[in-house]
Amino acid sequence: MMKKKVKQYVQQTQNGGRNREQVLKEFSRMLDDQIEKIVLFLLQQQGHLARRIEKLGEERAGLMEQSDSSQFFELREAYREVGVDLLKLLRFVDMNATGIRKILKKFDKRFGYKFTDYYVSTRANHPCSQLQQIFKQVGLVAVVGALSRNLAFLQDHQGNFPSIYDHPSITLKDPIIEQINHSVQKLTHATNLLQFIGQHALIVPEDIQSGSEYLVDDQSYHFMSLLLNLGNTFLYMVNTYIIVPTADDYSVSLGAAATVCGVIIGSMAVAQVFSSVYFSAWSNKSYFRPLVFSSIMLFLGNLLYALAYDVNSLAVLIVGRLLCGLGSARAVNRRYISDCVPLKLRLKASAGFVSASALGMACGPALAGLLQTNFKIYGLTFDQSTLPGWIMCVAWITYLFWLCISFKEPDHIARENSVNTLSSDSGHRRSSSLEDGLAQPFLMDAKESLDENGQDNYDNEEDLEDSHKPAASLAAAYRLLTPSVKVQLLIYFMIKFAMEVLLSESSVVTTFYFNWSTSTVAMFLAVLGLTVLPVNVIVGSYITNLFQDRQILVASEIMVLIGIVMSFRFTSDYSVPQYVSSALITFVFAEVLEGVNLSLLSRVMSSRLSRGTYNGGLLSTEAGTLARVAADMTITAAGYLGQSSLLNATLLPSLLICVASIVATFCTYNSLY
Q1: Where are the membrane-spanning stretches (predicted)?
Q2: 374: DSSP letter
């Protein structure tokens, strides 16, 4: 009905029948009425659930003096039935929250007016606001608590089970309660450590649509294959950062300027721009063959990198790094977790993916710091510049052998059928599960309305938006990007650009200003890498539960801006404390920003970008890789100005992009509610 109203408003304003002020006033009142209707129904059903729990509590009190286990079992099943209806109600609220976001987005699109900003800003924090009931629902949490407490009590019918209040660390392993907690977290955007870390991988867990799907405990997946994918991620990150402390010395030894290290480091990212696409497409057919190809390319790339010194060729060095970039299989690793790991383990696997990346980022420079030696074997040089290549050659050959004997290819036919079934039936099951139970009378009108809308012919763009098919090309994926998504991708670009500038030029800058040795640079970079997981622990466990994601986003952007400004050399006296403190501020808050940014990105991104070759993970990877390429090219270009100007010349683009991202964030701030 509201979609039709929006269409009528457009026609009336074009014909001069109504002015914009009248339309805004009437549409606001209409949306207020619809939200109030949802909230009143929610409160009514919440009361029904509370009365059922109260009656079951009376039965439980009467059974305490008996020892009939069958009656306790029946009572526990009765509580679970309440849980099933509560789950339907939570999904009802979630569906309507999505509907509100969509109608606001459609109004803005049709009128070219930021109605969302006005509506959210005037109602979000108003004492009489109904929006809080929809988006920040806390009343149902009390019902969840009552169910959890009673089911925990009945788990041992003697009543010996520890109290969930006295032992908060104890979690009730009941599938209904786990599904309910999942729905509550999704609705309130609550998070925990595993979720926050897992968000860095941009592997969005599918909604739990049916109890049967979640109750399957013996879903077959090959743990060793998952471990091999995480091992590939770890080794690739080690491979990326192991050369950073010595890349400037290597380029000088081959007759180039120290700032050519930007080209050496960035050439891997250049190749990754292309490898991400073909690896993402290849993973539709196989996982084993892409991983074998990746290992071979990385072995050959590192071999050329190590031999470049003895053949005295910068070209061989760069070709070696390009081959390493062509072996980037992170798209395959991410896709394997998304498609082949059971839903209940996917969050842990996603957190493992991010942890492996962070550990590799720290181990790469640390390992480079230990390779301070120089010797020759059969005319081949082994020193701090070439040893990273030789070490990684051995690592990838060992990994390839392990891969060939241990990896198990999943059953693709079964996987593709299950994915197609889930994607085609997900919308039907979400609505039918509601219609069949708790909210049937209320939702019948909604179903009829959807049927009417289905007969109404809107423009092709609207049909495209409502389609469930994944994007078939990068251009199609780009057309699905809303302003909010584009802003989040810009922020991700800024994060990777600023971090790449900081890390890649660290050896040149610290050698020029502070005369640091390779070991000192390596230790500094390793310490930066080791901050990733502790920062995620603090933010994921505490900060995200105290503040909204959008608030953390803005605060982190401002802190990154402060770190960048502090890094500038304003006087001739540039000190170690200034450099180290500014680098820590920039790096740490960039890590905080990345987790929140990817969380918001997964939330505002179209569901069509959650699967297929051209998915959200690929888009974010491409944005980050392009940022790294741009940063490394900036370092090399700034080298022509001289090493004394390198620092400020590379920080200036970071500053401008950071300011642009902050401005863009404020322009779309209310759409992140």
Answers
A1: 226-244, 256-279, 291-308, 314-332, 353-375, 387-405, 489-514, 520-540, 552-570, 582-601, 651-672
A2: E
Token pair in block for residue 294: 């990746």
Q: What is the dihedral of CA 530, 532, 533, 538, to 10 degrees?
A: 120
**Tokens matching residue 279:** 């690896």
DSSP sequence for 299-362 = HHHHHHHHHHHHHT-HHHHHHHHHHHHHT--HHHHHHHHHHHS-HHHHHHHHHHHHHHHHHHHH
For residue 510, give the nearest of 249, 237, 242 by alpha carbon.
249
- The number of residues making up the chain comes to 673
H helix and E strand count, the chain: 30, 2
The listed range with the strongest mean pLDDT (100-114, 327-341, 623-637) is: 623-637
Residue 166 backbone phi and psi in degrees, to 5: -75, -20
> pTM here?
0.71
Which runs of consecutive H residues, i.e. helices, occur in 505-641? 506-514, 518-530, 532-538, 544-546, 549-567, 576-604, 616-638
Residues 211 and 77 sit within 8 Å (Cβ to Cβ): no
Burial class (CB in 10 A: 0-12, 13-18, 19+), 160: exposed
| Residue that has been written with the tokens 């072996």 in this structure | 327
What is Dmax (Cα atoms) for the chain? 89
The band of 187, judged by pLDDT with boundaries at 50, 70 and 90, is: low
| Cα first-last separation, the chain | 24
d(CA 431, CA 95): 9
304 with 323: CB under 8 angstroms? yes
**Tens digit of each residue's pLDDT (9 = 90 or more) over 602-649:** 777 777 776 666 777 778 888 888 999 999 999 999 988 888 889 999
Which of 75-84, 145-154, 263-272, 609-618 shows the lowest mean pLDDT across its residues? 609-618
CA 66 – CA 187 distance, rounded (Å): 40
Residue labelled with tokens 């470049």: 308
The answer to whether 24 touches 108, Cβ cutoff 8 Å, is no
Full 3-state SS string of 121-138: HHHCCCCCCCHHHHHCCC
- What's the pLDDT at 213? 39
b/e for 616-633, b at 16 or more Cβ within 10 A? bbbbbbbbbbbbbbbbbe
Distance between CA atoms of 581 and 596, rounded to whole angstroms? 23
Element at 377 (helix H, strand E):
strand 374-377
Run of H or E residues at 34: helix 20-63
398, two tokens: 């060992």
Distances (CA, A) of 633 to 157, 219, 265, 304, 639: 68, 47, 9, 22, 10
Q: How far is CA 335 from the centre of its chain?
A: 13
Q: How far is CA 23 from the centre of its chain?
A: 38
When computed from its CA atoms, the radius of gyration of the chain, rounded to whole angstroms, is 28
Q: What is the pLDDT of residue 156?
A: 56
Cα torsion 619, 323, 657, 662: sign = positive
Tokens found for residue 216: 């399957």
Separation of alpha carbons 336 and 409, rounded Å: 10
219 φ, ψ (degrees, to nearest 5): -60, 130
* Paired tokens of 653: 């683009």
Question: 215: how many CB neighbours lie within 10 A of its CB?
Answer: 12
648: how many CB neighbours lie within 10 A of its CB? 15
